[in-house]
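Fold this sequence, please.
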Amino acid sequence: MADFLFEPHAPVSIPIARGGLYAVRRVYCVGRNYAEHIREMGNDEREPPFFFAKPADAVVVGGVAIPYPPQTADFHHEVELVVAIGKDGTDIAVADALEHVYGYACGLDMTRRDLQAIAKKAGRPWEMAKGFDYSAPIGTIEPASAIGHPEKGAITLSVNGEERQRGDLSDQIWSVAETIAYLSSLVTLKAGDIIMTGTPAGVGAVGRGDIIEGEIAGVGIVKTVIG
């Protein structure tokens, strides 16, 4: 076996509520999946889903503090339902899609909104607005075998104890099953892939020292502090 030039990086993992760790392979994110959020961002809610990605090592667990990122003055929170894939598949039918889900968690899609606005205006990729270091805090994964497949339930976010976001999973334009089916027509999904399924209205800026708490009824919580 050839020697590595340097020590390979440790795998990224998310704790599982009933014990064990979920190894992360890829992080896919759905853009604009709640109508009110689409409207608040000034976009057309009738568009089909589109996706962007974050690197696996953007995932942060355990409620630890995350740094305020460089090159931004408009750092936003977005609370989202996270889907953890547990079975490989491509061109998955909607009717079969939930069989590929291992479990669910509550997560945050942290965003450098000013960089995103610049990228949008110039027709450029969003990666530096979305896929930067520490941009994906995620709570504990609850197996679907324990909680089922949530189709409704409050999804909320507070900053320093003040509610900023409130929606319901039933408000999603594209259901989890439809999202998995559509995404699997573009790429092969594998165990270890997670999908962040979009955020409800109420996104806004946070600053150093702010405490962010997201919660999805029946799924769990995510918490972080801006360091």
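Residues 13-225 form a domain with the Fumarylacetoacetate hydrolase; domain 2 fold (CATH 3.90.850.10). The mean pLDDT is 94.
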